TrEMBL record:
Record key words, sorted: ATP-binding, Ligase, Nucleotide-binding
Name this protein carries in UniProt: Acetate--CoA ligase
NCBIfam families tied to this protein: PRK04319.1
GO biological process: acyl-CoA metabolic process; fatty acid biosynthetic process
Lineage of origin: Bacteria, Candidatus Falkowiibacteriota
Species annotation: Candidatus Falkowbacteria bacterium CG10_big_fil_rev_8_21_14_0_10_43_10
Length: 575
């Protein structure tokens, strides 16, 4: 007998036809998807939650389905999200939050993270998030740099602020989400405060250019970490890319596995999914292949956004996707690292869908290149520019290079979601713009059909398990250890994680290389900087290669690692 399976491809994608959509794109049309206050002002939070809570058709629709690591399930409608985020906004207002203040969330994937993020933006303050794997030094650097006024976290994570608390002069209050605690004088219980707060709030109308969010990301020039500031008008690009690339339909159940500590987890797991009024699943727990499949089956996930490392981990786990009922899954996208052909094949065989690779950065605020549902894909290509974004491959002088020629991936900087500033670091911000282009720092080429092929980073930024790590931060953490007098850190290609962090370490003469010491250094970085940023490999060497101005030349370490000729260090020019 013939087995009839549900047709998985949406009858018609929202994009309809790529060439037409790209050619006919108009910013004015795109803006019509967004709700404005008088005078052309807007607010991301209003677009993501409030307008759906005010709409008869969506106010009682489920916005968030949340499952905890232990299996507890909670659901929230758009109205409930509206009320909870209003309460957070009122709590912040009571404590005198001002437009432009930085409020950071350091929490796991729990409902508080999501409605607090919206609540912060409602007040006109800048919402920031931090990956909960960061430890005291990683957190301190970010809170200090951003001059954060409030932090929303829990008792366990707040311990990591303790050591440096006195040095954080701008930090007024730490709100704790754990019920019933009342900490020291600078700690307040968020649930207690919310209890007495009103559930109505007038969202502050913002200018399109006003700052909405701040995400810290890693770089290798000027500064190891930068607070990338995204404006409220970003929601125009975010909404549209989600509609076209994630291809949301009214009844979709959407799951994005990205942590809200990173850009994908805020833009496409809070902002653009909800501005499209889509029911969103959040699973608090860690990666677990079987559990992930069960989440997809149980909640009838229809659109899934994940990362190549997660796909490789699914493959490595030996899980058989065909054993689960994934009939509802009709569309899937990937982001953050190179998506390998065997991953695409595995997904097709196991989950019965095509993966659409998407390419963007924290700094661009939304997808800039993507593969579109229903459109031709070329395996290995990151796709074509999204409507509204002019992408070119340019040389170092800003000149467009011929097709199939390697160069810098660059965009015209008129994209609404592109960062507005790097917090208090104009030099860093300016360094991205050259000859009228925003230059991504990635290398690639374009083929004769306009498809873009990603070749790698131009700088030394590491992508490990899809998470962006700056080598300088890891080097600084290592150097703090008494045994280390110098360190150089690189990304080493890895089958599962894309790259792993490898550290080359010069030891103080009083210490001898040993496996025990390696383990100690790893633990040291885990404890002080972040659980995700420790070197999985450590090699002891005598000298770290530096150029004339004392900058580490990591490409020599990379060559050394790959067993390639290292060249003559003494003749190195300044990079
Ligand atoms: C890399 C993540 C290959 C790239 C949204 C970029 C990718 C950096 C892809 C940004 C892709 C992103 N294929 N590499 N599809 N997408 N990258 O800021 O090097 O965490 O510059 O933003 O990830 O990482 P970020």
């Amino acid at each position: 007998m013939l087995k009839i399976t549900k047709k998985k491809i949406a009858a018609k994608s929202n994009l309809d036809n790529y060439e037409k959509a790209y050619k006919n794109y108009s910013l004015e049309e795109a803006k019509k998807e967004i709700s404005y206050f008088p005078g052309g002002k807007l607010n991301i939070a209003y677009n993501s939650i409030t307008r759906n809570a005010l709409n008869e058709n969506t106010k009682n629709k489920t916005a968030l389905i949340w499952e905890s690591e232990a299996g507890e399930i909670k659901e929230f409608t758009f109205s409930q999200m509206e009320n909870l985020s209003n309460k957070v906004a009122n709590v912040l207002k009571k404590h005198k939050v001002k437009k432009g203040d930085r409020v950071f969330i350091i929490l796991p994937r729990i409902p508080e993270t999501y409605y607090s993020f919206i609540g912060i933006m409602k007040t006109g303050a800048i919402a920031g998030t931090m990956f909960a794997a960061f430890q005291e030094d990683g957190i301190f650097e970010r809170l200090k740099k951003s001059e954060a006024k409030f932090v929303i976290t829990n008792t366990e994570l707040a311990e990591r602020i303790k050591k440096n608390r006195q040095k954080l002069k701008e930090l007024k209050y730490i709100f704790l989400t754990d019920i019933g605690i009342s900490g020291g004088e600078d700690k307040l219980s968020l649930p207690e405060e919310m209890e007495s707060a009103s559930a109505s709030f007038q969202t502050v109308p913002m200018e399109p250019d006003d700052a909405a969010t701040m995400m810290f990301t890693s770089s290798t020039s000027y500064t190891p970490i930068s607070g990338v500031v995204m404006p409220h008008q970003a929601v125009i690009s975010q909404h549209l890319t989600a509609k076209y690339v994630l291809d949301f339909k009214e009844d979709d159940i959407y799951w994005c596995t990205a942590d809200p500590g990173w850009i994908t987890g805020t833009v496409y797991s809070i902002i653009a999914n909800w501005s499209n009024a889509v029911t969103t699943v959040i699973y608090e727990g860690r990666f677990d292949a079987g559990k992930w499949m069960k989440i997809m089956e149980k909640y009838k996930v229809s659109v899934w956004y994940t990362a190549p490392t997660a796909i490789r981990m699914l493959i490595a786990s030996g899980v058989d996707g065909r054993k689960y009922n994934l009939d509802n899954l009709r569309h899937m996208c990937s982001v953050g690292e190179v998506l390998q052909p065997d991953s695409i094949r595995w997904i097709k065989e196991n989950l019965k869908v095509d993966v659409c690779d998407t390419y963007w950065q924290t700094e661009t605020g939304s997808m800039i290149v993507a593969n579109f549902p229903g459109e031709k894909k070329k395996i290995g290509s990151i796709g074509r520019p999204v409507p509204g974004v002019i992408v070119k491959i340019i040389d170092d002088q800003g000149k467009e290079v011929p097709v199939k020629t390697e160069g810098n991936i660059a965009i015209k900087p008129d994209v609404p979601s592109l960062m507005k500033t790097v917090w208090k670091n104009k030099k860093m911000y300016d360094s991205y713009f050259k000859h009228g282009w925003y230059v991504t720092g990635d290398r690639g080429y374009m083929d004769e059909d306009g498809y873009i092929w990603f070749l790698g980073r131009k700088d030394d930024i590491i992508k490990t398990s899809g998470e962006r790590v700056g080598p300088a931060e890891v080097e600084s953490a290592l150097i703090e250890h008494p045994a280390v007098i110098d360190a150089g850190v690189i990304g080493k290609p890895d089958k599962l994680r894309g790259e792993i962090i490898k550290a080359f370490v010069v030891l103080d003469q009083k210490f001898n290389p040993s496996d025990k010491l390696i383990e100690e250094l790893q633990q040291y970085v885990k404890k002080h900087l972040a659980g995700h940023a420790y070197p999985r490999e450590v090699e002891f060497i005598n000298k770290i290669p530096k150029n004339k101005s004392g900058k580490i030349v990591r490409r020599i370490l990379k060559a050394k690692d790959l067993g390639l000729p290292e060249g003559d260090i003494s003749t190195l020019e300044d990079d």
